[in-house]
Give the backbone structure.
Amino acid sequence: MSPGRLFLALIPLMPVFLQAGGVYWTDRGASQLKRMNFDGSNLQTILLSGSVTSPGRNLRGLAVDNVSNRIFWADNGADRLLRANLDGSGSVILHTITGGNSFPADVRMDFANQQLYWCDQTRLRIQRSTFDGTAVTDVITNAAASGPYFMDLDVPEGKIYWGDFSGGSIFRANLDGSQRETLLTGNNTRGVRIDPRERMLYWINRDDKKVHRCPLAAFEGGTIPLTHPAVQTLYTNLDTPHGLTLDIPARKIYWADTGTNPGNGTGGQSICRGDFDGSTPLEILATGSEPWDVDLDLRCASYTEWVQRCFRRDASVDQIAPEADPDGDGVPNAVEYAFDLSPMHADQLKLATLFVRVTPGVSDDQQAVIYLRRSGVSDLKYNVQVSTNLLQWSDGETVEASVAPGPDGTELVLSSSIHTLMTRSNHFMRVQVQLAPQ
Ligand SMILES: [Ca+2]
Ligand SMILES: [Ca+2]
């Protein structure tokens, strides 16, 4: 058997349905919801056209639901959680916090359990509800003396991470609030995110005006200070950095900067982008009045959009070409696009996995390949081929046994050979990717 292999050819393809992704953010100063392309182009104000026409007068956290094409956000002016379709239609108030003295801040989503989480800074708690705003439940009460302010979820690991408003700590607990830990001290947290793939925690410190990260392994021995040697500094000399989000496949970080310390650093009143390892200078993608939080819809409808997502705006034409391999990992950009990999990082992930498929009740086994495929794109075509000699490859001798939804507009495809191991002693499979001319 051979490992899954790839082949790149260029052919024209017919257009199909497109769903572009992009960057969504709250502009607290302008009381507006914003959307733009990954490189900051095509900046738009989202106009609401449902049961509310104003997003609120004190906008805070925002989260994108690219499964159902919706955005969720918090308005600290009227103490509400709201929702709208990505185009602003269907806007609705999900939940209004009654009793006064509340401050809904960051919002995050648990898609596996269909739950919306939010921090309530002044009521010192983290709460959740359904995506329709019903069944409001306390998750963690007394989350911090100064109140929880920014948070993230690691649903597969059953963890919630949050930072407090002014106490200087980042905490972690189970999703039911048990096994609470203090991970970090000495940090005025304004944005925290987890990368489950590399077990890395990212956060922003409003006081030192920096973006930091640290391997989760460093917290295994208990609480560490910001000065711990395992804490890395990615970006410095910022203005007033706030909300933070990650593009894990592309290894990019995005953050908002409210700009409330004008003249003190770079990126004020802007949405900024950098690299996971801080290896290239920050990019200022767009400016606003007081950007407060940012989130991403990572779907890409075309190679051009993927380039905007994965490369710096000043990348050279040679670097972004489909046949180029700027990270030197042997995978050309077109294939990095097809399998949702990073074109600027030598990926350790397998492109496709080949295995023997055992079907209960069937007397012989078949080879099968499993791979990640973009759905809803106009310029890619995937084709699984088989061979007995690695020289001649045949189409039409595989069956798509299952297609399961993957993250961010992808799907996980299991394709099985029609030949059994009994009838073919030499048997190879490969996934062919075809990209339309750019
Ligand atoms: Ca590459
Ligand atoms: Ca790569």
Notes: Helices lie at 303-310, 317-320, 333-338. Residues 327, 329, 331, 336, 341-343, 345-347 surround calcium ion (ligand 2) (CB under 6 Å).
